[in-house]
Design brief:
The structure is a single chain. This protein is an alpha/beta fold. The chain has a domain of 135 residues: Alpha-Beta Horseshoe (Leucine-rich repeat, LRR (right-handed beta-alpha superhelix)), CATH 3.80.10. It is 18% helix and 21% strand. A 14-stranded parallel beta sheet has the order 32-34-36-37-38-39-40-41-43-45-47-49-50-51, with no helix packed on it. β5, α9 and β6 form a beta-alpha-beta unit. α5 packs across α7 and α8 packs parallel to α9. The N terminus is likely disordered. This is F-box/LRR-repeat protein 15. InterPro entries: F-box_dom (IPR001810), FBL15-like (IPR055312), FBXL15_LRR (IPR057207), Leu-rich_rpt_Cys-con_subtyp (IPR006553), LRR_dom_sf (IPR032675). Pfam families: DUF7885, F-box-like.
Amino acid sequence: MRIWCCFCFGEEEEYNNKGYKKSMRDPILGNNGEESPDETPAFDWRAVFDGVDVGGAGASRPRADNVGVRRNEEIDFDINWLLSDVEARNGNYSGERMLNVNLNLGLSEEASSSSTVQKEDPDRDSCSKRPKVNSFSLDWDNHLLQETSYLCPMNEGGGDMSLSNFLDATDDKGKDIGISKMEDLDVRMDLTDDLLHMVFSFLDHIDLCRAASVCRQWRAASSHEDFWRYLNFENKQISSDQFEDMCRRYPNATAVNLYGTLNIHPLAMKAVSSLRNLEALTLGRGQLGETFFQALTDCHMLKSLTVNDATLGNGIQEIPIYHDRLRLLQLVKCRVLRVSVRCPQLETLSLKRSSMPHAVLNCPLLHDLDIASCHKLSDAAIRSAATACPLLESLDMSNCSCVSDETLREIAQTCASLRVLDASYCPNISLESVRLVMLTVLKLHSCEGITSASMAAIAHSYMLEVLELDNCSLLTSVSLDLPRLQNIRLVHCRKFIDLNLHSGMLSSITVSNCPLLQRINITSSALKKLVLQKQESLTTITLQCLNLLEVDLTECESLTNSICEVFSDGGGCPVLKSLILDNCESLTAVAFCSTSLVSLSLAGCRALISLQLRCSYLEQVSLDGCDHLEIASFSPVGLRSLNLGICPKMSVLNIEAPQMASLELKGCGVLSEASINCPLLTSFDASFCSQLKDDCLSATTSSCPLIESLILMSCPSVGCDGLLSLHSLPNLTYLDLSYTFLVNLQPVYESCLRLKVLKLQACKYLTDTSLEPLYKDNALPALCELDLSYGTLCQSAIEELLACCTHLTHVSLNGCVNMHDLNWGFTGDQRSRIPSVGIAPHGSSLVEQHFPNEQPKRLLENLNCVGCPNIKKVVIPMAQGFLLSSLNLSLSANLKEVDIACYNLCFLNLSNCCSLESLQLECPRLSSLFLQSCNIDEEAVEAAISRCTMLETLDVRFCPKICPPSMGRLRAACPSLKRIFSSLVPS
């Protein structure tokens, strides 16, 4: 809810004939509503902040020096963007108590639309932080609601009266009373000065300017000097007069940023001369005269001076910088001939990317010196500058190509406290006879003079923690024993061969693109992850890393089988959990014995022949692409599932996995010897294991008694003895014996009493009497799904199975050449005596309505007869197929007549039955009917679907006797149709 309220002040105000206030002192600008004849007109300094409109948020009018709040203008201001900032920063204000308050302060004739000031969030550095007052109770929202409801009473209609309506109200005589009542009110919102100070402490200058245009209280609060300690005019167009006025109004400012302003010299001169408390000054993108640096001595409080991208003096003279309190000096990318710095308190000096050829330093307390990319500085100048700072701790001389070892030696002798040295891209240094004992960080990127001999000098830096040697093209070996070394980088070292590191604190190693690297020897108690990818020449690894958890050696093509000793128990990595050896194509025999290894990846190791894993906690293993693996032993392992179907040459397998639940050997066509001891195994797929024999199957069923699903498809070596062993599997419910040479199913009937699914696809050696126990002796009483696709059973055997084995719910007879007519027990005369199917009366089932004394004779729900070439007629009465829900007769080319009356049938597929002529359907629940490529005519289809009251999808594509104009007739015959698919285009 948006609450409209206004601020009313007790003091009287006068307005001229245009509605402007005649007199109001501006607490920020210091000017009155009208210009004084003896005063210089005050400028609108807020105009320099990104074109902020000081007349009000969202107001569009030209700026003027007189920026008092105008009576005929409305200012719509949303306080939530202020309070939300407070909430986000110190968490003292609850989001549930936020109010969406619209402070309408104007008295316009026409109410303007509400426009919420969008708060910007620029990056602020430490110098832009303003002091914050202590947090106090913000329990003022109830009082705010009371006062706003008092100022803005509700109208009789129940809606809230907006301020504009309130001001336009008239009395009984038609006199305008809105303004007078508002002027008489001496009540304002209880926003205390402390609250405003706290809220405003989070705003930048732009938002302070916007807040100043709300009311006089906010104007006074936003002008507090606490918020204007840091005057940031970066890239702003401010004139000298404007800046002078700012300095006069805020003489206690401590930081000024004039980078990118026009004429930085006069502005800088004004800053150092007017702001006696100035501590930080930032300048740049212009020219600074010599007088500015002379005037610095008068700015006694200055501690930080930053000059970026500027010309100092006229560019051909010496610039002296003398100051007794300066702590930080940055002359970045400056153009000058010579710099002389004499600052006894200076701690940080940066001359980065500046063009001076000479620099004289007299800074006895200097700790940090940055002369990176000072290409014109000579070796002697660098030596003189650095050695003049005996307390130097950090030196960046990168890209100073003329630096020599002699300079480094003198620096090492003079600056005994030097800890950080960046000498990257200095081709002339080799560290010969250089001793930097206290060094902790050393960066030597692209130093062509660094060789293996340089390691002798680095070895003396026993405090070294970080070493970077990227692109050192002549470096061949690194051998270091540094007790505090934590991080080392070796990237793109083209001739690097040998790495030998001993450091108890080493925690990060980056070695990449070193094509000749052959040997690695690492000793560390802090290293947890080691990544050495694509080291094609790496052959030897020696590790003593007590806390190493992860190793990645992907595409290390030269690694030999000896690598297994490194990562096995006793090899130096006692807690290793993850090992990646992907695409290590030289590995032929891998053997790991580890009590810690959890994950192992050997993907792409195409030369691997033998694998032996004794890893009791191993949970994941990847063997993708190991297509030459012949012998595998997993004993013992902690695997829960294993897929070895991608190893077609495997001949010997040994598995001992106490937790394994799923094992897939699909495709191990030459597997002849297998020992599988998995007591919790529930799923076993041995498809296409053509050499798997009865003894192996018997041993497996004996050691894995919990198997529920067993797939032996295309296992021709399995015979009666193997099937009799299935009695050891009391939970077996799924058995697939497809594509086998079985002649007798008696072992299955005797051993698999709880079997629910039996698949016998393409078992062409089964006799016609093989299935008699199913429907004569009630064998396999729990069986509900039977697949006899592509078999050779005769028609009578199929008919007896369908007629007598009534507990089957899913039957597949796809491709059975002996399958002829499917007639389930009645003629056409009998069909006429069956009552039509309708909706059963309330309280009685359809079974009772049609067959009051009988229950459905079959439980069959799904019947598939796809591609049966000799089937010609299908007749299914209601009594025989009452529960049938899906029937697929597609690709039965000789099928001519279909007569089906099934109450529960939902899906019927007759596609590609090109001989179909007669179609009679009485299927009230049929929802999908497919007749693709059938020669049946329109009238037959129309008559068939007329009794299918729930049909939604009809597919008659490629039916030559059904043309698109007949789609309307089909929809009329079956109003429930939603989708008709037809591919023919009308002629």
